[in-house]
Protein: Biotin carboxylase
Amino acid sequence: MISKVLIANRGEIALRVLRACKELGIATVAVHSTADADAMHVRLADESVCIGPPPSRESYLNIHQIVAACEITGADAVHPGYGFLSENAKFAEILDAHGITFIGPTAEHIRVMGDKITAKQTAQELGIPVVPGSDGEVKPEDALEIARKIGFPVLIKATAGGGGRGMKVARTEADLEEAVSTARSEALAAFGNDAVYMEKYLGKPRHIEIQVMGDGMGNAVHMGERDCSLQRRHQKVWEEANSPALNVEQRMKIGQICADAMKKLKYRGAGTIEFLYENGEFYFIEMNTRLQVEHTITEAITGIDLVHEQIRVASGGGLSVRQEDIVFSGHAIECRINAEDPRTFVPSPGTITHFHAPGGLGVRVDSGAYQGYRIPPYYDSLIGKLIVHGRTRVECMMRLRRVLDEFVIDGIKTTLPLFQDLIGNQDIANGDYDIHWLENYLASKTDA
Ligand code: ADP
Structure:
């Protein structure tokens, strides 16, 4: 059993995990950098430990300090949240060696899914549909032959990739040589590894991901999908569940494929299997072996607390639900509220002079922000998530419009006005968008 959890994260997700622990009667330890001494998760935790100066490398990514904080406080488990050390296999191993439970999958599964080529091969072996492409790494001299086999346009991707870097499209044979060499040099600069592979380039896909949860002993369930097509620079901005593009049969079919794959893998914990979706087909792109920012919309439509489940399976207690117990009810939308200029997306750290979160039926605000809180400039700019639930998509959108009008965050710039714009857009109202929609929309506004 887990009796004390150290939360190796900050911001809204640290608070999210803390809330789940409190509900389960588990003691909490917050860790924080000197820049976060006043943070909400630090104030609400049972104990807190300062683990270093503001730069993440020296604090939230500092494994030694975090392990030491566990030993000082007697924490018997660590929840890594998302980002930071959440997909660091070495961290999971080190905790294991110290007899501390990592609330997440095995180090081996983190490693397999962390390498793009191994992840894709594994997915394919597990029966998950993947994007047609090269079998593994592509050498420049073989690129043309492989591209002809796949068919143009093709996408060159870094095997060590992340954040969309080291990715180049070749639309025709004439573009190929340059695309391969640019992708390789970008990959070398960003990841210290110039290996690339090749995939068919999909023109207008949606991003649809499946939430899975396994007990590590061969039981696994899926909790439906999230549509995260509305992105800017590969960063998700607005997510919804269910996807406006899927019907029940499609949902249950792809969901079951993913759940079956996780059973075969004996996967433990929460995971997300990400797909591009085009013309009725799913194409695996990657698996995230952690809780995701947008897990909240899955919670809204299933009523299941994913962090409770993570803690249960990490302590060997198994899943609290069987597949047939999981019922999808209504529609949920999450808006990511960033401390950024809503037009230029330049970060806007500073002090929040006035903060009023909306409320009412079907409304959830996950945020560590409060009146007087000073947003430090060192970390990512997500300051809160607004999640709205309704019985239908239309009801959810109506509620979102009302809630956006109620939300007040003064003293800094935020992306709230962007959502006020989107809620009035006809394509959004129709659910008619792909992964390029938002960037095109933003570009059209700047031109106008
Ligand atoms: P990263 O880890 O660098 O974020 P991903 O494989 O997750 O790389 O891809 C990031 C994004 O790039 C996807 O969300 C999608 O927008 C685009 N992308 C990836 N693969 C393809 C593809 N085969 N065709 C078209 N777009 C793609």
The mean pLDDT is 96. The first helix runs from residue 11 to 23.
